[in-house]
Amino acid sequence: MTDFLKDIKQIRFEGPQSDNPFAFRHYDADEMVMGKPLSDHLRFAAAYWHSFAWEGGDPFGGPTFERPWYPQTSMESAKLKADAAFELFEILGVPYFCWHDLDVRPEGASFAESRDRLFEWVDYVLPKMEKTGTRCLWGTANMFTHRRWMAGAATNPDPDVFAYAAATVKSCIDATVRLGGENYVLWGGREGYETLLNTDMGRERQQAGRFLQMVVNYARKTGFKGAILIEPKPQEPSKHQYDYDVATVYGFLKEFDLETEVKVNIEQGHAILAGHSFEHELHLARCLGILGSIDMNRNDYQSGWDTDQFPNNVPEVALAYYEVLKAGGFTTGGTNFDAKLRRQSLDAEDLVLAHIGGMDTCAAGLKAAARMLEDGALEGALQARYAGWETPAAQAMLTGDLEAAAARVEAEGLAPEPRSGRQERLEALVNRYVG
What is the pLDDT of residue 368? Predict the structure, then answer.
């Protein structure tokens, strides 16, 4: 045991009437919802990076957190950090965690040293995973922090950086496989551009497409059975990124014949940055058959950037899980808290309480979504709105030509009148379930 989380006991479910801040009010892991335990629906994962690697800095100020493993410059500090991380996972009862390579080991003097340190960390945490039962939801490579990545990784104008990116991703896939990871994520932090004056977008997109094909081929060669995911993000840190949103990613996957091989890991904060709602991105991914996993956080709507705050808005979360449930629920994916404390939240207890609040918010949201789906009122209204398309005449029109569709107007004397979309009625209906 470390001293970081001392005296904090395992968090238990006490129900909505509890006033104990160190207890779940809505998340009962064993509660049956739509035929399976709540824990199997939500598949919670803690983010190694924000919880244990982030130091509390912002663009205008340095670190505010003091943790016993800072500075993260040795494997000894990395192992101390791993000790604290698995204590948190056990306290919260989260079944999964997610990681970047730079989160879990310090950068070495060479690629080989960095790789070996990553595998040393893998060997160190495997017994902890067995002891606690905590599994790896996904791994990924940090190819955005070090200065070598300032012009991108796969899209870099320097082919040596492309090669370094390939070696980095290969090592991270290998580590994910050894950890029994259920997914591998490609987070393209700087796969974009700052100015078109020095950018060839056509070339860079081709590089990105070929890189992804290489990743898929290697992962399958290793026998990796999990999902390969792309996390869409429109900007920040780059002015414009090539994986802007779900629609952009799907077009990219189609172009490079990868739409059956790669799915998306959708983050709430990134959806907002792209000018969408979270449920919009989830809905579209569901329709396209590429919904894989989610990063659950929120943005400060008065800020123009990705603030990565823990979720606390049950109505928003309910609409998100409504889409997940309509997609059939998660298979290899889950709910990863890509969320971090505010830089004034200094104490270890704050980290635990933030996760408790986020997990309760998600549990309340998912249960509301399940009630909406089981009740069927929303689905009934949706089907009624499009019922005309189920008629033989409408179906025939979709398989015919423009002349035939136009001929119906005169032959049947069509003079359609607009029908109400009943938006306010439906919004009030949603509030019945989340109120």
Answer: 98
